[in-house]
Amino acid sequence: MISSVKAKLGEIMSRFLVVLLCVVSLAVGQIAWGKDFYRFTGGPTGGTFQLFSSSLSVFLSDQLKDMKVSNQASAGSTENLRRIEAGRAHFGVVHSGDLFLGREGRLLGDKKRYSHVFALAVLYQSAAQLVVMEGSGIKSVEDLAGKRIGIGGPGSGAAATAERFFKAIGSWDKIDRKFLGYSKAASAMRNGQLDAMWVVSGYPTRAVIELAAVKKIRLLDLHGPAEKAGFYKLYPFYQKKDIPSGTYASVKSTVSTFVDSTIWVAGKKASPKRVQQALESVYSEAGLRQLKTIVNAASYMSLENGIQGIKVPLHPGAQAFWNKKQK
User: Fold this and answer.
1) Is 9 exposed, middle or buried (CB count within 10 Å of its CB: 0-12, 13-18, 19+)?
2) Could you tell me which of 23, 222, 216 has the C-alpha nearest to residue 127?
3) For residues 50 and 314, what is the distance between their CA atoms, to the nearest angstrom?
4) 3-class DSSP state for residue 131?
5) CA distance 188 to 152
């Protein structure tokens, strides 16, 4: 009987000690790491999304001493949108198209409205590029009927943009679509197995550089057909962009196209104070200089480009920051 009571007391004491250790650990963590713990959701390992999220997480944790930002890998833009809407992350990286369509409940196969994800700033831009061989006789998008076009991998942002564009101009059902990533599409172009390849990326794009090094290429004008078809009214997050002559070997004239932006976003769990502090740190001279040494795509980032083309509401902290900078 006595041994049974002792055993019971021992079990109660063990549980108490476990709880006490957990409480002490949490308290020590708070002292060691500061008051605020934020999560930054990025992208697949090795991708630009993940490079931005990991770099910004390290930078903000270093600059804001009472704030710890941890980086999280993800599948990319739409997963980040869903994580932040659900409150499972504070910061993230999202394509402007997904951000805009998600807010309106117009994502492909997903009618939910993501109304609690807000813009902070534009990180970089990706240009739509339609590449053909110079000697192919293809000089405009109207010449692509019946042609084999590599439009990007299955489920990719490039393929989604291709579908929006070609449907808008009435050519989606007239082209022979091939779901190939950029490197495979470039290889198929070299071997004569494709007539055109579609790219949505920062430029110059490596796969196109490598193709242009061995074959003479041409970039097709995309802005003209887009504007004529009302593409920008359907998808106002896209903007006109000129790709300068000489960007690729054999491309000797400026070509007009459109770009999609990649946006730094935050959810309702991110406080206005913290968002404003984060932007002030990143958009300082030292912050931009450091980020641009780590991420090539960050060369686009500046106070002038910060919210250019954003079509969704800013986070209250971001609104305060940009209002102050634009005075």
Assistant:
1) exposed
2) 222
3) 22
4) strand
5) 13
pLDDT tens profile 64-77: 989 999 999 887 88
Orientation angle between helical segments 48-63 and 285-294, nearest 10 degrees: 140
Cα–Cα distance for residue pair 295/7, rounded to 1 Å: 60
d(CA 190, CA 130): 15
Percentage of the chain exceeding pLDDT 90: 68
Q: What does the alpha-carbon distance between residue 308 and residue 310 come to, in Å, rounded to a whole number?
A: 6
Domain 126-261: which CATH class? alpha beta
Q: Going by CATH, does the domain composed of 37-124+263-325 fall within 3.40.50.2300? A: no
Q: pLDDT tens, 132-172?
A: 999 999 999 999 999 999 998 876 778 888 999 999 999 99
The C-alpha atoms of residue 303 and residue 60 are separated, in whole angstroms, by 18
Pair of tokens at residue 238: 């896209």
CA 300 to chain CA mean position, Å: 14
Cα–Cα distance, 75 to 204 (Å, whole number): 25
Sequence length of the chain is 327
Q: Measure the N-to-C terminal CA separation of the chain; round to a whole number of Å.
A: 80
Q: Which of 34-48, 173-187, 250-264 has the lowest mean pLDDT?
A: 34-48
Query: Which tokens go with 224?
Result: 């003209």
Ranges for all domains in the chain classified under CATH 3.40.190.10: 37-124+263-325, 126-261
Q: What is the pLDDT of residue 77?
A: 86
| pLDDT (0 to 100) of residue 15 | 55
